[in-house]
Amino acid sequence: MGADRQALQQEVFARILNRDNAPCSAGDFISVVRELGLMVNMDRAVVNHVLSHLQSHPQPPTIAINLSNDAVRDESFHDWLLERLGSFAQPGRFGIEINESSVLNNLAGIEKLRAALRSLDCLFGVDNFGVHPSGFGYLYRLQPDYIKIDGSLLQDIDSNAQDQFFVSSLISVAHSLDIRAYAERIERDSQRDQLQQLKIDGAQGYLYGAPKALS
């Protein structure tokens, strides 16, 4: 959500329905999917579902998904994803997010994927930004379209001067490279107001509404 409270893009969270037809949280099923070696299959299913939704809903906003670590490391998945997006009429409405730890653990591979996504005009973002001790030098190489500052760094942003200083630094680093900076897990007006003073480009969280099914 931008400063004018207009939706900048949407993010899809994968869920599996239980026996009562209610969505389970990721913590309830991801470990099982991983143990069965089905994480990449699940990512493929999510990509197909989102692209199908975009095809039947030709108007904005863009929809982004998070890739699992398994998919990030799987070059055959990269090839499949790029082929799938290459045959899609509006690839610019699709975005990929990868968490910062996964980026740092496979920077060369992600840099190649990032370049291919840019050629297709797909958005690329770094999720959970700011918590890794290795620093942010990789941003210059990767040049993501945006970063999402990890919610753990924003919990007390409306009251903690040290947090405000650190987050302001993260935003400045991103803006110096023409990278947009978004905030995660925002729940209070006071957090949003403080972040706007720090020149954040957008935010997401329960302040703007609870997740709902992708129609």
UniProtKB/TrEMBL annotation:
Domain of life, source organism: Bacteria
Coiled coil location: none
Xref: Gene3D superfamilies: EAL domain
Listed PROSITE patterns: EAL
Annotated protein name in UniProt: EAL domain-containing protein
Domain (EAL) ranges: 1-215
CDD domains hit by this protein: EAL
